[in-house]
Automatic annotation (TrEMBL):
It holds the Pfam family Intron_maturas2. Residues 47-67 are annotated as: Disordered. InterPro entries: DNA/RNA_pol_sf, Domain_X, GrpII_Intron_Splice-Mob/Def. This is Domain X domain-containing protein. PANTHER family: NUCLEAR INTRON MATURASE 1, MITOCHONDRIAL-RELATED (PTHR34047), NUCLEAR INTRON MATURASE 2, MITOCHONDRIAL (PTHR34047:SF1). Residues 495-590 form the Domain X domain.
Length: 737
């Protein structure tokens, strides 16, 4: 323990003293246990306030000089550190954070961030034991630069640590290449992404415990499916809906507004300055008009297949690129502010959290239950009786209507459901426009916040919300035990996938043409792929579409339509590839699911089974969901009120179990009920066996109180038996005399 403390104290020294972290020299260590450690250090870096160039010469220290052992740094557990941060944040979510920069000095967080960015960069995971000494030294130098304020976002030439894929020698670049490097847009630097990951590790647990339960985008454990299930459960009785598009905020906001929202909960100057510099530092972007002109000047040449390097990640497969094209409008825009990178979605939620809290207050103000309501009975409307998906007992009109409102935000899009007169919805829209203008400096109007009735159908996340009127038969027992049956009027919320939007996305991806009678088009991007590979790619795409429309009422219909388009597209592709003239001939040879091998233009190919037996041909997988009966039904699993993700449930349960009041309440309940805990039963069993060498009676078959009395009564029986034995011994001695 003393060794670790001394090492951390040694690593946190200033750059003026000749220590390990102040310079940018590198250690070189091999994997063999008999290898020698070579310590390199640049004495010129001690006098320079900036980090030297990675390719600058470094002088060797004589082998007799002492070397620092960095193995304790790799033994620290970053997961345990982050877990404690999550637990402490959820235990006291209302506290103001003032000492968050103390976690920046912890090297295990930087190592974990390096591993994550390395995996994103190269496509392979790097264990801690495989991190080379030079990379570890440069990583700690980056940490010290962040702590000392020497780190600059968007660096192009001066790096503290470079990407493992970056093999270029910056000292040998010409002036033209350096000018192009400084003026053209470049991907985010490797060291910038490491710092972004560290900041995300520290800020995410703090604000996840503070965020409203009404926001769902850019948060762990919450997806678009969560929004659809919440709408199905909680928006059933609403008549008026108001949609709002605040996505212009995701394009960029003033840094002062973001910092003002951030500083309400985090008062750490170093963290605030680091994020502020990321927002303020300009991002170098190239001129798009000039890029288009260069593309036009270039002649189109034959493009050869590019061979990927060993450390280069593979691009997304075709089926995944196709599915990304189906992203709904609410999820298509991703915030990217300045040099914040992956921090931008978190900062967007921090910025818009004030809107969520304001809407939660409006929900409580608007709620007014009616006396005849049997669904919403709580004072705040949070408690519900029965299934709100079938609110047939709630009056749909008249003075006894329950006034209630709910709200959901997914990224920059909001959806407000309101039960009451339209005038209340118009008044809420007016207040919302004033709030956005005052807090976010965002100009909204009535067109950007339309109010629509449920009968017209509300589009949200490519699902249509509509109402179906039902007339259930209500049976109840009247006075005297007479059963009365009456016809009631109620509403049922229907959540269906938009077939029109599905056709629009297919047309954008050039899979079909036409609106009224969609005609599939051949998928020429898979022209040079084999039949087995093409079918496998499309099956993955169809499986993903089945999962995407999992909670839609018309899941079978929309998935069957997608299967028809994909199957027709592949049939036209195979007809053009194998010269079969028509789709009918393709289906005749390859079957309905295109599983059989198709003929080649030169004639019949060898026997398919023989090639399969020899291992010269891949097995062809038939297309899935070619019939509607093969498509699974919609998932109507009940969605509980007050739902939370699994990781939040575990955190809250752990905090509750660690609380002493919980243990005292459990013990009090056990005493009042006359029960016995398993721990007490085992302890009494062991004590009784050690004292009297008698096994305790089994707990099964008798109640706990009887078992407790028997366990406590064994000692008394033993003592009485010993007294009786002594008396009988005295009587025997007297008889003998």
């Amino acid at each position: 323990m003393h060794r670790r403390l001394s090492l951390l104290r040694h690593l946190s020294t200033s750059s003026s003293s000749p220590t390990f972290v102040s310079g940018t020299g590198s250690f070189l260590i091999s994997d063999s246990p008999n290898s020698t450690l070579l310590f390199r250090r640049s004495f010129s870096s001690f006098s320079s306030p900036t980090h030297p160039h990675p390719s600058s010469p470094r002088r060797h220290i004589p082998p007799t000089a002492p070397s620092n052992d960095l193995s304790p740094l790799l033994k620290e557990d970053a997961i345990a550190t982050l877990s404690s941060l999550w637990i402490s944040s959820f235990r006291d979510p209302s506290s103001t954070i003032t000492s968050l920069s103390d976690h920046l000095i912890r090297p295990e967080l930087w190592i974990l961030s390096y591993q994550k960015v390395y995996a994103d960069e190269t496509g392979s995971y790097l264990p801690k034991s495989s991190i080379l000494r030079p990379a570890l030294e440069d990583l700690l130098a980056l940490r010290n630069a962040v702590l000392d304020g020497r780190f600059r976002w968007g660096a192009r030439l001066d790096f503290f640590i470079r990407s493992p894929r970056d093999k270029a020698d910056l000292t040998s670049l010409s002036k033209r290449k350096i000018r192009a490097l400084l003026t053209n847009s470049q991907p985010t630097a490797f060291q910038d992404r490491i710092v972004q990951e560290v900041l995300l590790f520290l800020l995410e647990p703090i604000f996840e415990s503070r965020f409203s339960q009404k926001s769902y985008a850019f948060r762990p454990g919450r997806t678009a499916h969560t929004v659809v299930r919440t709408i199905r459960r909680s928006f059933a009785g609403y008549l008026w809906y108001m949609k709002g598009d605040l996505s212009t905020i995701l394009d960029g906001v003033k840094p002062g507004l973001v910092i003002g929202a951030l500083i309400r909960d985090v008062r750490d100057r170093k963290i605030i300055d680091l994020i502020k510099s990321a927002l303020v530092t300009p991002v170098i972007t190239s001129n798009p008009a000039a890029d288009e002109a260069k593309k036009k000047k270039k002649k189109r040449k034959y493009q050869k297949k590019r061979i990927l390097a060993e450390d280069e990640p593979k691009p997304d497969p075709y089926w995944l690129q196709t599915f990304f094209g189906f992203a709904p409008e609410e999820a298509s825009k991703y915030p990217d502010w300045g040099h914040c990178g992956i921090l931008s979605p978190l900062l967007a939620n921090i910025y818009l959290d004030e809107l969520d809290k304001w809407m939660e207050g409006k929900i409580k103000e608007f709620y007014k239950p009616s006396k005849s309501d049997v669904i919403w009975t709580g004072q705040d409307g949070d408690r519900e009786q029965g299934n709100t998906s079938w609110p047939e007992f709630v009056p749909t009109s008249g003075p006894d209507k329950t006034r209630k409102m709910d709200y959901i935000r997914f990224g920059g899009h909001i959806l407000v459901g309101l039960r009451g007169p339209r005038a209340d919805a118009a008044e809420l829209r007016k207040q919302l426009i004033q709030f956005c203008d005052h807090r976010f400096q965002l100009k909204l109007d009535n067109e950007s916040l339309p109010i629509e009735h449920i009968t017209k159908g509300i589009m949200f996340l490519d699902h249509v919300l509509c109402r179906r009127v039902v007339y259930p038969t209500l049976r109840y027992t009247a006075t005297g035990g007479k059963i009365i049956s009456e016809k009631g009027v109620g509403t049922l919320l229907s959540v269906t996938a938009s077939l029109k939007q599905c056709i629009k996305q297919f047309r954008k991806l050039e899979f079909l043409k036409g609106d009224r009678d969609p005609d599939p088009q051949p998928c020429f991007r898979m022209f040079h792929a084999t039949q087995a590979h093409t079918n496998a790619q499309m099956n993955k795409f169809l499986s993903t579409m089945v999962e995407w429309y999992r909670y839609a009422d018309n899941r079978k219909k929309v998935v069957n339509f997608c299967s028809y388009i994909i199957r027709g597209s592949l049939a036209k592709l195979y007809a053009a590839k194998y010269k079969l003239r028509s789709r009918a001939k393709v289906y005749k040879i390859g079957a309905r699911n295109l599983q059989r091998p198709l003929k080649d233009k030169k004639g019949q190919s060898p026997e398919y089974n023989e090639l399969m037996r020899m291992g010269l041909l891949d097995s062809i997988e038939g297309l899935q969901y070619t019939r509607m009966s093969l498509v699974p039904e919609a998932d109507y699993t009940p969605f509980q009120n007050g739902w939370r993700p699994e990781h939040e449930k575990v955190l809250l349960e752990l905090i509750m179990l660690e609380d002493r009041r919980t243990l005292e309440e459990q013990r009090k309940c056990i005493r009042e009920e006359g029960l016995i805990t398993p721990q007490d039963y085992v302890s009494m069993l062991v004590w009784n066996y050690k004292k009297n060498a008698v096994a305790a009676p089994p707990l099964g078959g008798i109640d706990a109180q009887k078992a407790k009395e028997e366990l406590l009564g064994l000692a008394c029986d033993t003592e009485n038996k010993e007294v009786n034995d002594e008396e009988s011994g005295h009587l025997l001695q007297a008889a003998q005399l």
